[in-house]
Amino acid sequence: MVLVLLAAGVYFYKEYNRKPADISNVEPAASSGATALVELYESDEAKANQQYLGKAIEVTGAIDEINNQQDTLVNVMVGESSSMHKVSCLLDNRYVASIRNYRVGQQIIIRGICTGYLMDVEMNRCVIIEKK
Amino acid sequence: MKNIRISIFFAIILSTIISAAGLAQTRYFTKTGKITFNSRSPMENIEAINNKVVSIWDVASGQIEFSVLMKSFEFEKALMQEHFNENYVESDKYPKAIFKGTIENSNALDLTVDRSITVKVNGNLTMHGVTRPVSTTALITVKNKAIAASTSFSIALADYKISIPSLVADKINKKITITVNIPDYQLVVKK
Q1: What's the whole-model pTM score?
Q2: How many beta-carbon pairs under 8 angstroms link A with B?
């Protein structure tokens, strides 16, 4: 009985203090080209949300911009520079250094949580995926 | 017939002048605003941060808008973030929150001189499918031609039909403080 209570206690304590998942350890629910993802959101936001909202997705495309935000954050815009809308990827703070090997115009694979569509398709907690 | 042609000609000229005047507006825009919300209670302090705030401010009319995605709020603890999205704000059903309002006397503001200005902002906040009026003061800071803005106000969860289960009621304040911080408004149109 004491053991059961103890186990339950440990479980609740761990569950309560659980940190948001490191996306590099999360299997993506879908993958898409950046341009195709933007086009889907532009044409039918509700349908795109049904498919992608809140899910870990992997996006492939060319880097359009790399921006520093508030000193410590790094945001990577992926997509066609001619398009008004892109995929806006806010990097997980633990992985901001990994962008150093990349330049604007280069292809990149980014995995993150799709949080929806404002001016761009938004992704949070992003990590760069290196394919071997 | 000729008169009609002339009047059409003048109508075109006139409409061109009007639309040119309409373009001669100063607009500021950002995609990198930050909104933080805080719930303080004796049991627990909860904070969430959203670094993807989109805002546009039309200086002449004073109209100002903010949009955020509810799922872009990041919490320290995963369980809180899940409860926030699934049970409280139901972000699958209501993915965005939008504020539309007006800055009082916006067109009279001199944004060319370095200084801080306190302004009044009135408008409507739509969240969780509910629209409610919000009035607050904001601070606009001009420094080396860069424009920043910040404000803070509190909302009652009940006003937005967000109900907190009694089990966790003592951990979540019924009034939430929302802090808005726009570090860098970009000038988009000026003629």
Answers
A1: 0.87
A2: 69
Q: How far apart are CA B66 and CA B48, in angstroms?
A: 17
Token readout for B140 is 């606009």
Nearest CA to A26 out of A111, A124, A130, A114 is that of: A111
Set of chain B residues whose Cβ sits within 8 Å of the Cβ of A20: 74-75, 77-78, 81
φ, ψ of residue B107 in degrees (nearest 5):
-70, -15
Distance from CA of B170 to the nearest CA of A (A): 16
Determine how many CB atoms are found less than 10 A away from the CB of residue A56: 22
Residuewise pLDDT in 10s, chain B (191 residues): 556 565 655 555 555 544 444 445 789 999 999 999 999 888 888 999 999 999 999 999 999 999 999 999 999 999 999 999 999 999 999 999 999 999 999 999 999 999 999 999 999 999 999 999 999 999 999 999 899 999 999 999 999 999 888 878 888 888 999 999 999 999 986 55
ipTM of the modeled complex: 0.90
